[in-house]
Design goal:
single chain, 2 domains, 6-stranded mixed β-sheet, two-stranded antiparallel ribbon, about 45% helix, elongated
Length: about 425
């Protein structure tokens, strides 16, 4: 037994309610357990209990042992003065105060509750509830996934708030920075946002009509033009960059940050930078265009870009590939950007501005995008739960990372459902 479990048992009335009595032998009935307090002070607020013939309304504090009251120093804390009941698992001491009663719950908690909790917390599987998962109702799982997706995006709001604040609340800048991070995908997720932060969006906007100048700015700031080239095109980029660098007083990021090893050539950072340049060239007002549509059918064409002509025959500067190919941003990459940048930023914009319908539209956008494929989702699939779309796959990633891997079953609707099942 621990306090987290005891609080869940009290909150959800998972004890036998009959024949409850205080440590002094007075009959006790729980009318309402109160509201869980996540801040400092008593565990539950505004509870209602009847002791004898008297109805009491106030706060409730829970401990494993009665003696924990004094160990935690509550007797000297004014926040605990308006208490009507002290709920404990084990009453190992006399009532700690004259103005409230003590209730010992140990004998009233069904053994199945403790068994189920022990099963979850001691599980060796990556998903603690894997053996019980098939018996959880679909509606329980689906409603929990909906909440988890919103939770995942609300966390992003916290992560992105500093970026938004640093640009005086400019959502176009936030989209530019986050889009750049997304173009780095997993391997180059660090240098890509550094690259974007090194070039103000308004500078790229001034050169939007000239793709070569945009490439010069991006490749130059990426530190990739600081050498001698044999071919004309990279030399043109280098010359253009030297002029723009001096004009705007730019400082490139270190070239060594970019990773090429163990990557398919189509994912080389040179190709991704060229594709990002094409996206900037195509639309500098991407945020306003994205904000105006809620359909993947309309959003996907906005991201449908290819690297410039030079890159048809190259993966890196000065090295001609044997077989020319269009360096098109593939469907899977477009879906990845919609999942990790477009849909969340639409949700966060609506969330910040109290636009509830737009929040729902952003959530629903991922219903039309295929589920991702990764080790976490394979684990869920192996345990009989397959993501049907990106909304579910994102939520299942959140569920695994924030709950399963940390064994936070008591804070998980599925874990609670299993514990409550009797």
């Amino acid at each position: 037994m621990n306090e987290d479990l005891l609080q869940v048992i009290w909150q959800h009335s998972l004890y036998k309610p009959g024949n409850l009595s205080t440590a002094n032998g007075e009959a006790l009935t729980v009318v309402h357990p109160g509201t869980r307090n996540r801040n400092a002070g008593p565990d539950f607020l505004e509870a209602k209990v009847r002791i004898g013939e008297t109805l009491l309304v106030g706060n409730v504090e829970l401990h494993i042992n009665t003696s924990d009251w004094q160990k935690h120093g509550h007797q000297n804390d004014a926040a605990y003065q308006n208490l009507i009941l002290h709920v404990v698992y084990n009453n190992d001491a006399a009532d700690v105060a004259d103005n409230f009663a003590t209730l010992e719950l140990a004998a009233h908690i069904p053994d199945e509750i403790l068994t189920q909790h022990s099963f979850l917390t001691n599980a060796t599987s990556g998903i603690p509830c894997s053996a019980r998962l098939p018996y959880v109702k679909s509606i329980t799982k689906e409603s929990w996934l909906s909440r988890l997706l919103a939770e995942r995006w609300e966390e992003k709001l916290g992560d992105w708030k500093e970026l938004l604040d640093s640009s005086a609340g400019d959502w176009s800048n936030l989209l530019y920075w986050r889009m750049a991070a997304n173009f780095g995908f997993k391997i180059n997720a660090t240098p890509f946002p550094m690259l974007a932060r090194s070039i103000p969006l308004n500078i790229l906007g001034r050169h939007r009509e000239n793709l070569m100048q945009i490439e010069a700015l991006l490749f130059g700031q990426a530190g990739m033009l600081d050498k001698d080239f044999e071919e004309d095109y990279p030399n043109q980029l280098k010359k253009e960059y030297q002029f723009l660098k001096a004009k705007y007083k730019l400082e490139p990021i270190p070239a060594h940050l970019w990773k090429f090893l163990r990557m398919r050539p189509a994912n080389f950072p040179t190709i991704r930078i060229a594709q990002f340049a094409a996206l900037v060239h195509k639309s500098i007002h991407l945020f306003s265009q994205i904000a105006e549509t809620d359909s993947i059918k309309d959003i996907a064409p906005l991201l449908d870009v290819s690297a410039s002509e030079y890159w048809r025959t190259h993966y890196t500067f000065d090295e001609v590939q044997k077989k020319p190919s269009d360096k098109h941003l593939g469907v899977a990459s477009i879906h990845n950007i919609i999942i990790n940048t477009i849909a969340p930023i639409k949700f966060l914009y609506a969330y910040k501005h109290g636009l509830h319908r737009q929040q729902e539209s952003a959530l629903q956008l991922l219903d039309t995008v295929p589920a991702e494929k990764n080790n976490i989702l394979e684990l869920w699939h192996d345990n009989g739960w397959k993501a049907e779309n990106a909304a579910q796959s994102q939520a299942m990633i959140q569920l695994y990372n924030n709950y399963c891997s940390a064994t936070r079953c008591l804070q998980c609707s599925i874990g609670l459902n299993i514990i409550k099942a009797r």
